[in-house]
Amino acid sequence: MARQIAIVEDEPAIRANYADALRRLGFEVQTFASRPDAQSAFAGRLPDLVLIDIGLGDEPEGGFELCRALRQLSPTLPIIFLTARDSDFDVISGLRLGADDYLTKDVSLPHLTARINTLFRRIDALRRPQGAEAMLNQGELAIAPERMRVSWKGQDVPLTVTEFWMVHTMARNPGHVKTRDQLMRDAQVVVDDATITSHIKRIRKKFIAVDPSFDEIDTIHGVGYRWKT
């Protein structure tokens, strides 16, 4: 049975383009132009994944409100923000509300598809019995690769898909410097150096929110980053 993806986007042309592209990839697609329409439909049945824009019609923060409501309905529903807004404030706001990933509208279709399929793999892993996967442990860090869960000192650290793979790449070989190219390859993203830097900043902030003394990621200027041994 085909996975069902809902797109909540107020621009008709953009909505249609994404819907057509995802249908060609074999997904069932529902589309909604406003938060109230989407929320009304989701009250009856949740899709398998939701793509949400932040500004919806006359609601500049409508996507944030919808994300909050969806998280109350389901803690595991995959939610991706797909928006033109790329400020750190918006990204962090979206992730704090419980979104799994945050992508801007210049994202390529292969990258978007990779993100969607990764989240579906995580959902499949969550449905398997606990303990069926291998854990990666480095000191206080625990990583469940299939479930894409990271914890520090026993507390969950909410990372996006991209951030998860960056942490996984560094922690798998502590003490080894990972270049920006290696981080991009493992996270399946192609971005500039400034974007990698902002991802690392957000990763640090999320760990510090759990543990103010966190200081496990070294910046090796001009080269990349490493997880301390």
Automatic annotation (TrEMBL):
<dbReference type="GO" id="GO:0032993">
    <property type="term" value="C:protein-DNA complex"/>
</dbReference>
<dbReference type="InterPro" id="IPR001867">
    <property type="entry name" value="OmpR/PhoB-type_DNA-bd"/>
</dbReference>
<dbReference type="GO" id="GO:0005829">
    <property type="term" value="C:cytosol"/>
</dbReference>
<feature type="modified residue" description="4-aspartylphosphate">
    <location>
        <position position="53"/>
    </location>
</feature>
<feature type="DNA-binding region" description="OmpR/PhoB-type">
    <location>
        <begin position="133"/>
        <end position="229"/>
    </location>
</feature>
<dbReference type="GO" id="GO:0000156">
    <property type="term" value="F:phosphorelay response regulator activity"/>
</dbReference>
<keyword id="KW-0902">Two-component regulatory system</keyword>
<keyword id="KW-0805">Transcription regulation</keyword>
<keyword id="KW-0238">DNA-binding</keyword>
<dbReference type="InterPro" id="IPR036388">
    <property type="entry name" value="WH-like_DNA-bd_sf"/>
</dbReference>
<dbReference type="InterPro" id="IPR011006">
    <property type="entry name" value="CheY-like_superfamily"/>
</dbReference>
<protein>
    <submittedName>
        <fullName>Proteobacterial dedicated sortase system response regulator</fullName>
    </submittedName>
</protein>
<dbReference type="InterPro" id="IPR039420">
    <property type="entry name" value="WalR-like"/>
</dbReference>
<dbReference type="GO" id="GO:0000976">
    <property type="term" value="F:transcription cis-regulatory region binding"/>
</dbReference>
<feature type="domain" description="OmpR/PhoB-type">
    <location>
        <begin position="133"/>
        <end position="229"/>
    </location>
</feature>
<feature type="domain" description="Response regulatory">
    <location>
        <begin position="4"/>
        <end position="120"/>
    </location>
</feature>
<keyword id="KW-0804">Transcription</keyword>
<dbReference type="GO" id="GO:0006355">
    <property type="term" value="P:regulation of DNA-templated transcription"/>
</dbReference>
<dbReference type="Pfam" id="PF00486">
    <property type="entry name" value="Trans_reg_C"/>
</dbReference>
<dbReference type="Pfam" id="PF00072">
    <property type="entry name" value="Response_reg"/>
</dbReference>
<dbReference type="InterPro" id="IPR022305">
    <property type="entry name" value="Response_regulator"/>
</dbReference>
<keyword id="KW-0597">Phosphoprotein</keyword>
<dbReference type="InterPro" id="IPR001789">
    <property type="entry name" value="Sig_transdc_resp-reg_receiver"/>
</dbReference>
